[in-house]
Amino acid sequence: MRTELEAGQADASGRPATRRPRFSWADPGVRLGVLAAVVGVLVALYFFTDVPGSLAFALKVRGLTVAAMAVVAVAVGVSTVLFHTITQNRILTPSIMGFDALYLLIATALVFVFGATAFLRADPLVLWTGQLVVMVGFSMLLFTWLFGGRRRSIHLMLLVGIVLGTFFRSLTSWMQAMLDPLEYQVLTDTAFASLTRPDETLLALSAVLVAVACAAVVPLLGTLDVLTLGEPAAIGLGVRHRRVVMVLFALVSVMVAASTALVGPILFFGLIVANLAYTYAGSFRHAWTLPAAALIGMVCLLGGQLVLEQLLGFGGSLSMVIEFAGGLFFLFLVLRKGAR
Amino acid sequence: MTALAPATSTPARIRPRRTWAGVLIGVALPVLAVASLFIGVSEVSPAALLEGGPDGDAASLLLLSRVPRTVSAVLVGASLAIAGLIMQMLVRNRFVEPGTTGVTEFATLGMLVSLVLWPGMPVFGKMGVAAIFGLVGTWVFLRVIRQVPVRQLVLVPLVGIMLGGIVGAVTAFVAYRLDLLQSLSQWSLGSFATIMQGRYEYVWIAAVMVVVAWVAADRFSVIGLGEEFAVNLGLDYRRVVAIGMVVIAVITAAVLVTAGMIPFLGLVVPNIVSLIIGDNVRRSIPWVAGLGAVFVLACDILARTLRFPYEIPLGVVVGIVGAGLFLWLLLRRGSRAH
Description:
The complex is a heterodimer of chains A (340) and B (338).
Chain A: H1 2-11, H2 28-48, H3 55-87, H4 99-114, H5 116-121, H6 124-146, H7 154-177, H8 181-191, H9 200-217, H10 221-227, H11 231-236, H12 241-263, H13 269-281, H14 286-312, H15 318-337
Helix pairs in contact in A: 1-2, 2-3, 2-14, 3-9, 3-12, 3-13, 3-14, 4-6, 4-7, 4-8, 6-7, 6-12, 9-12, 13-14, 13-15, 14-15
Chain B: H1 11-38, H2 46-51, H3 57-91, H4 103-117, H5 123-145, H6 155-177, H7 181-188, H8 203-215, H9 217-223, H10 227-232, H11 237-259, H12 265-277, H13 281-305, H14 314-337
Helix pairs in contact in B: 1-3, 1-13, 3-8, 3-11, 3-12, 3-13, 4-5, 4-6, 4-11, 5-11, 8-11, 12-13, 12-14, 13-14
InterPro entries (chain A): ABC_BtuC-like, ABC_transptr_permease_BtuC
Pfam family, one (chain A): FecCD
Organism (chain A): Agromyces rhizosphaerae
């Protein structure tokens, strides 16, 4: 199975996961290998079940969806785990910083100013680039302002991000309330993520962005493990905390912005994925939890799509179902374990 | 008060500030209320009122639309600010209010549920359902917050906002499925534009809750000192918390039904009052109520005059002004504590 091999290699950051002398379920490598195999099976299932007409065509169309899922799974999984490490908290997701609010505000403002037809006819590449630049720019501004200066509190920065998010949201809902119902209809589709039928150019660009961001994380893996000990301990052990966190935060915002600009806002997906990864990986080390999060993301997206299409018979609304499940999972998580 | 933010306790510095603030609120409230009565698209001036007009148009407009609008602005402002104050006492954190703890989102979900399941239900019933959902939301939040380490002050609202975001996503999902998304965003956007006689009376229920809060004020002060302390003083902790929860949920629901969502109000007003007169709830309740009313009246007047003759929704104006004030409070505090 080529896909299995590829997934394993790409996501275990280059390490041959299953080639260890002894096989034991406690070994994170074995666990990751099994996960990669599951992803391979799901990809195969997704490709070859119920092919209507030409196989080559179906492979091409479905390949795009699978690729979009892979980009989103890696971006969301990796960024959420990194975010948890930075904030020392496992129930937050990077999207609370107001990314979704900003995304909707940009879309709404465009429809509001130029009208729905112009919005639909606009070059997707221009829209994507614009969304990306504004979102990354916003988070970096916030970050250098509140964390780069003398105050340097991550939680304070988050709270300010949220306040600004609320502000964006009230602007958005004001503009939406004044829109024509037909124009509004155009917007409702941007408010929910859609994984199927992505634009090929944007997909390729997003994939490159996310891959570069992931590659930048690899040399930091050891430092990340030290960061889990907490800020004072990490500084004591020689980590240049402020600089590392700055770099990590930049990577997180690039990944979140890339995935949001590609498929739309996904709020709570990362929460499920990251927390499952901590439990499943059997190791706290980021060399294992990061690829585990990406692979689990793939399993959730592919498995969810298969269940929706094959068993329940309605496709397309996967992101909503996942958001719903993510919400319930979050509630379960905080009520059971508390907010640590 | 250890966990609560700046409780300045130097009376010498506070007294002149207090007098000034008292004078300001005492003058601003009646002035703004009267101004609110006479601002609008249709001409309602004191002269027109005295004249009587051909059919007493001005007078009937005043009674049907302007008076309800002014009264509800005052009541909504006062009660939301009080709800924020009590929430802050219950959680012992200065950065919470019904909007940052998921209570408003739960209540909105309740409204939507009642709208879908029992479309013919009278507004009073819808408000009841919303209040029950708000109560559940408060309970969930209080349970969650018990697990947060005491020192991480800013984490509490973060968790609350996540909670609200999730419930909001569920609401949006349901509304999207049923094609109610735009109408949802319309009625949940705070505004007094549709307030008329016969449609605003539900805010009086919020006013009743303010009275309840007033009567129980001392107990809330004690709650703000922490559970152990409160129990040691012989207070029935659970009962006081339950009263607080009901007050918060009913106020949130009543305001939601009449005016929609109004962000930041419950956050900003009690914080400012606390800066001026400290954290004794019995003493600060009238101030919080008064300043809340002034704040909403002023924002409503702004909303009506900025783009005259059109109207900007109140929620947007409060969102912008409130976000600015809240950021100021946050950063002011942040520069000292972190």
